[in-house]
Each structure stands twice: as structure tokens, then as C-alpha cells.
# Entry
Amino acid sequence: MAIRVNGTEVTSPEDARISLLDLLRERLHLTGTKVGCNQGACGACTVLLDGERVLSCLTLAVQADGREVTTIEGLADGEGLHPLQSAFIAHDGFQCGYCTPGQICAASAMLREVAAGVPSYVTADLAEMPIALSREEIRERMSGNLCRCGAHNGIVEAILQVAREQAA
# Structure
């Protein structure tokens, strides 16, 4: 079995009980993905699996067999930051920074969901395309990623900035 992690093929662990989070942090030493609650409630461990956000603490590594995993380390383009990383810095979208990798990975997938026309619970007009990305819409879509420091306003502003840039 093989998993592509940030563009590099790695072998799946022999032990089918190992979580994707443990594979990333303990075996591959990709420590950008954080251990938060380890119960799927905080979003600190969010990574992308074939471009969709998943909680790596609840995902077994074997579930990623034959698939592409992207962590915060894999979002950037070489030495340049990903637009969300730059926007988080510009808008103070973090304080302690612990939740930031999960927030950025989740926001990246969320922006793709919006572009694909996937509605949320608060989407006002299900027929409207493109979906109007309001602060309320972002807060709803990012509600699975907690920031205990209270940097939510900066996070929302950073995501709005990138969404506007992508729409232009």
C-alpha cells in the first residue's frame, strides 16, 4: 500500500490501527498537523484527503491508501506561502497558532466547496451561483475548527480576502 503525502509516496503502516494523525506526526515527522482533542471535536488535526478536509485523528492511515494527503506543509508552493497563509498573517488570524494549520487546511477545502456550489446550513438562496460568501457563511462552514484564543475575526477576514482574490 502507498499514500501520497504532500506529493511524496510513502508506505502505509503495517498496523491498520494507526491514525493518519499518528502517521503524519510520529512516523513522517510532519508536525504542522496538530493533536488537539484527539476525538474529532476541535479541528486542529484537519488535513486534506484528495482535496477534501478530514480530521486526521479520526481517519485511519489505511483509509488514505492510494490517495493524496496534503498537510499544512504541502499547501505552500515551494518557498512561497499559500495565499491563505499570507492572509492569516496579514489579518492576525492566529494568536498562539496551534489551531492555524487545521484552520488553513479547512479553509482551503471550504473555498473549493463554495466554488463547486456546495451549500451550507446558512446558505440563503440554494439556486444562487456563485454562493455569496458572507461572514456568517464562513463562520458556519468553519464551525468545526475551534480557536481557543479567539482569533475568529481575523480568520474570517483572511478567508474573505482570499475568496475575493480568487473571484477577481
About this structure: The two ends are 41 Å apart (CA to CA). The beta strands are 2-5, 8-11, 46-49, 52-55, 68-70.
